């Protein structure tokens, strides 16, 4: 759940005024079919705008930055550890900070090129067989972690996450993202 700030309440107020105006204009209609259709439409549009406004306000008021991201591979346990610091650089509280890391195997950089590295076909037989292929090794993995909760404006918090590292990965590219809710 996201923490609400005054921009959320302003947008909810505007949407509520539009909703009330739509309901009042629907109730003035004489035909029951038109009245029901207008009430349904106004309700549906208001709900859509409310959800959309939460997403937009969160995007522009909750600013999180990632600092000092480092990784370390533990060969004995075949895991990789990511450490870093997330900082709330906005003016509003953030309820939950999510860190996403994507690892992409660059087999083509080491000369290990196979057709399945770039394209995995899914066909008619996968529907019946469940798509299980024991020889298939995914060439990219994406993991998401909640690394901080209830960050105040200007507050920073260090984090450490770890997950299994595929032993067949060579020359790995990493892509990281962080966002707040």
Protein model, in words:
With 181 residues, the protein is of the alpha+beta class. The chain folds into 2 domains: 6-61; 64-180, Immunoglobulin-like, CATH 2.60.40. 34% of the residues lie in helices and 35% in strands. It is built from 4 helices and 6 strands, in the order ααβββααβββ. The protein has a 3-stranded antiparallel β-sheet, with no helix packed on it. The protein has a 3-stranded antiparallel β-sheet with strand order 4-3-6, with no helix packed on it. A hairpin with a 4-residue loop joins strand 1 (64-74) and strand 2. Helix 1 (6-27) runs antiparallel to helix 2 (32-61). Pfam families: DUF2393. InterPro entries: CHP02588. The chain crosses the membrane at residues 6-27, 39-57.
Would you spell out the secondary-structure blueprint of this structure?
Blueprint: H1 6-27, H2 32-61, E1 64-74, E2 79-88, E3 94-105, H3 115-118, H4 124-129, E4 140-151, E5 156-164, E6 172-180
Protein name: DUF2393 domain-containing protein
Organism: Sulfurimonas aquatica
InterPro entries: CHP02588
For the CA atoms, what is the radius of gyration?
24 Å
Mean pLDDT: 82
Number of helices: 4
> Helices and strands: which structural class?
alpha+beta
What percentage of residues falls in helices of 4 or more residues?
25-40%
Stretches where pLDDT is under 50 for at least 5 consecutive residues are none
Could you tell me how far the N terminus lies from the C terminus, measured between alpha carbons in angstroms? 7 Å
- The CATH class of the largest domain, by name, is Mainly Beta
Instruction: Examine the coordinates and then state which fold CATH places here, giving the name of the CATH topology of the largest domain.
Output: Immunoglobulin-like
Q: Using the alpha-carbon principal axes, give the shape.
A: elongated
Number of strands: 6
The total tally of domains equals 2
Note the main sheet: 3 strands, antiparallel
Beta-strand proportion: 25-35%
Q: What is the architecture of the largest domain at the second tier of CATH?
A: Sandwich
User: Major sheet: order of its strands?
Assistant: 1-2-5
Order of helices and strands: HHEEEHHEEE
Transmembrane segments: 6-27, 39-57
Pfam families: DUF2393
Protein name: DUF2393 domain-containing protein
Keywords: Membrane, Transmembrane, Transmembrane helix
